[in-house]
Amino acid sequence: AASPASTPPPPKRKKRQVKPKSPEPGSVKPPKGWENIYSLVEELRADRSAPVDDNGSEALPQRHLGEPVFRFQVLVALMLSSQTKDAVVGETIRALQDHGLTVENIANTPADQLNKLIGKVGFHNNKTKYIKQTVEILIKEHNGDVPASPYEMMKLPGIGPKMAFIIENVAFNKCSGIGIDTHMHRMFNELRWTKSKNPEQTRIQLEAWLPREYWDTVNLLWVGFGQEVQQFKPKLLKKALACSRPKEALKLIKKLGLDYKKEGAKLGLEERIKAVLMCDDVGDADADERKVAPSNSES
């Protein structure tokens, strides 16, 4: 007689993956020299001339129409911004504002008309769907307003941590987290301020050491700087040479991928760059003369 079929062993249970706990803000020692670099970037960005300064979520929304409309326009500007240049976002937001960029009006706008209005932004078909779904949620669940909590915002279609924390900062003047974009993720890893594989890991690591008083300005400051490093190299090189610490500035922009020798050759600035690099004092061009000139007391 055939032997009875053996009972198969029970399947092995997978070990439960314990998600590592994120470090508490302020719990990690800051990287050496970060304040010098940060203050240098603040100086280089003092003119506020990057695309994000004119066409970002802080510059575009209409506050004079009331806080709920302002908050909604901040939300939409961020939703349109992914995979899209700021100039295109600015053009699109202004077209929407001419159309009427309010929750009620967008809710009453047919999807095909909305899609035409935002047709120049990247992934406009998906964004049309997300915006239409979002206004429906805002009306049904939030009295037509944007929720104040970034964690409630993340429940909206197409809104992740980066957008939610920026919206909270711009629309509500609160900052419980840092919005990290791809520029910041790249630069902070190149500076070795973080060691991360994606922007969300960068956010967690940065929040662990960056003092909270910097949180509400770090995004606009560094996004604009990243845009200038990649898209406006001649302008940034000139600003670096004209700043109070040109030698440090040249080293910084080189570390972040700007070949100042190549750009300097295009602009005829080779001698100026050479003089800066040879100067021990990182101050102005007269520093060497002051170091060697005899004092008035010498005769």
Walk me through the structure:
Residues 80-228 form the HhH-GPD domain. It is an enzyme of class 4 (lyase). This is DNA-(apurinic or apyrimidinic site) lyase. Residues 1-33 are annotated as: Disordered. InterPro entries: DNA_glycosylase (IPR011257), HhH-GPD_domain (IPR003265), HhH_base_excis_C (IPR023170), HhH_motif (IPR000445). By secondary structure, this protein is mostly helical. The chain has a domain at 60-172: Orthogonal Bundle (Endonuclease III, domain 1), CATH 1.10.340. It is 57% helix and 0% strand. The radius of gyration is 25 Å and the shape is globular. The protein starts with 33 loop residues before the first helix and ends in a 7-residue tail after the last helix. Residues 14-20 and 281-299 have low confidence and may be disordered.
Specify the structural class.
mainly alpha
CATH topology of one domain: Endonuclease III, domain 1
CATH architecture assignment name of one domain? Orthogonal Bundle
Q: Output the number of helix runs.
A: 17
What is the 3D form?
globular
* CATH superfamily placement of one domain: Hypothetical protein, domain 2
Uncertain runs: 14-20, 281-299
N-to-C CA distance: 121 Å
Short structural summary:
It contains 17 helices and no strands.
Topology, pairings included?
Elements: H1 34-44, H2 51-55, H3 67-81, H4 86-99, H5 103-108, H6 111-117, H7 124-141, H8 150-153, H9 161-172, H10 182-190, H11 199-207, H12 215-231, H13 233-242, H14 246-255, H15 260-267, H16 270-278, H17 287-292
